[in-house]
Amino acid sequence: MGREAATDSAYHSFHESEVRTTRRSYRGWWIAALTIGGLQSLALLQVVQQQNSLVTQLTSRPSGWTQLTSEGYSANIGIHGTTHVPLVDKPKKLLLGGLTPTADQRFRGDCWLFSLMGVLEDSYHRYGVDRGWLAPGVYVRLSRQAFGIRVMEQCRQRPTIMCPVKATSTPDGYRNPVLWGNTTEGADERMLYFMKSLADSALPDAVCKYTDTNAGESKCDGLEKALEWNPLHFNVTSADMLYEQTDIQRALLQKQRVLTLGVLMVVNEYYLPCTAETASHYRCSPGTDARCVPCPIERAFGSVVSGGGCCIAVRRPMVSMRGEWHHRHRGKLILLGGHAIGIVGYSDEYTDEWGNRGGFIIRNSWSDGLETAHGSSGRGSHTAAYYMRDIDEADEALACPNPHSPRSWSLCKTLADCHNPVTALEANAQRRPLTLRCIDNSADMFGVCTKNATYFMTNLTEWDEDGLFVACFLWGGEKDAPGHGNVCAPPMLIDDLASIWTPAVIEHLNDPGLCGYNFLPYATLDKLRSRFGGNGAGDFNIEWSQASYASQKNLAIGGKFAGGGKIATFDYSLLQSSTRVLPTIGRAGLSTHAVDKKGNLRPL
């Protein structure tokens, strides 16, 4: 399994299930989560099915938890009957302001944690700015590491179905089949409302470093001391679960705050033409290969079938290097797992590469580039403003050039043109890589180019109606590498080119403070919901104590503790060291920049 498979393989939240208080419902919730996500072992499923006593334990809630009565749940989680008034004069697009930057979950399956912390971070910013306690141009980065540890601690003390859980490697017979709170792999974001004991668990990011792997998920030196003097305190006064597009848009418009979104993820199946010309690259045998499947019925594949060829099925993830989530309208959808993200806006006008018009702008927790790939060539993203069409391609490239994506590569027609210094200068000024190197690292296409040789892309031509392209390249003409020639790659997805060629030199990477946003079409979300179920958005109303803000620290006299005639105060040092400037992107364009002699853009 690749990186992202490991990253989110344990996410097991089933967002359409209500939290009920009967043994049968709890067991059914687990079965649904395990079956739909396909994300935990069958052994764990069998163990949980047998544990009536354990499930019964989960129906009781010690102090520190919101009581899960049907009346209380309906009143606070918003599943009671409502009348949905149509949105009148709804704007065609909306993007929330003052968004805090994305964060990278790295190699861990704690997307739920990043989704929750994004909501907490944004609520802290908005709550403080609205009351004059925080400057609009700054934000406080909260610690994902510390909050994850606190969740594990609370879940060990008071296990609940919303907690992260894993199977016991050496089960103690019937009594201890699973370990509660011993992992951050997978959880339900709704715990933010129910787990009231977490109200003092939000800590500034400076408390400890986030670890890249699960091996260090419990490590945070200084955590106890930081909790003792922590000024941050929040209260989730209400929460709501939303499932329809209109309801989510209404919440964004009326509440003006970030929503969580639990969404199921799939891989799409595509079909590559196996012919005499492509057989060596696909390593297939036309007509006789056991992997052969019927080709799609469309004009591009007509010559394949008539020539005795066949098609080879390949699977690709649903998120492209353009940051667009998509599904195949005429192909198989294979369930991969689940993921938690944040909804920050919508656009009814943006159209993606696949022809889907309209969708939600989402804040993700993945880094960009080749090293993040699982089953694909890599990942990419954009600014939220890009999906609003508030800035053009040239401005966007200043923040999110996505150099690994073939969509970003510069074209040249002849070898003389490709080697012309002016061509190189213009390409660098636009942050579009020109010189490419063959890495020949694809899992499905082989020997298309000569490894480590230099190439230039000359064209990118659509081959069929379903995402396959043909790209042609000029050999760079190195004297020490004779025998190389110009090549045209067989039909493949644009992203697949990134596993065969890569920029020879990468001078500009995506700005993590501005990039990290994706686009999720309404059509794709609807397809996932109708096919698999399980997609829901969470809306949390969060209040923060006045003493949570450094500007109000004089109000914290008396703090948390007073004893022996001595009054203690909160410690704001971590809060102050975790306060950062809120990044912004301008719309002025290239006219506000000058190009230096190396082709780099410099502000005027």
Mean pLDDT: 81
Largest sheet: 9 strands, antiparallel
CATH domain topology of the largest domain: Cathepsin B, Chain A
The CATH class of the largest domain is Alpha Beta
Shape: globular
Spans with pLDDT under 50 lasting ≥5 residues?
Answer: 1-81, 561-567, 588-595
Q: Between the first and last Cα atoms, what is the distance in angstroms?
A: 47 Å
Rg value: 26 Å
* Secondary structure tally, helices: 18
Strand content: 15-25%
Helicity level, as a percent range? 10-25%
Assigned CATH superfamily of the largest domain: Cysteine proteinases
What's the gist of this structure?
The chain has 604 residues and is an alpha+beta fold.
Question: Could you explain the architecture of this structure?
Answer:
The protein is of the alpha+beta class and 604 residues long. It contains 18 helices and 23 strands. Helix 2 (23-37) packs antiparallel against helix 3 (42-50). Mean pLDDT is 81; it is low at 1-81, 561-567 and 588-595.
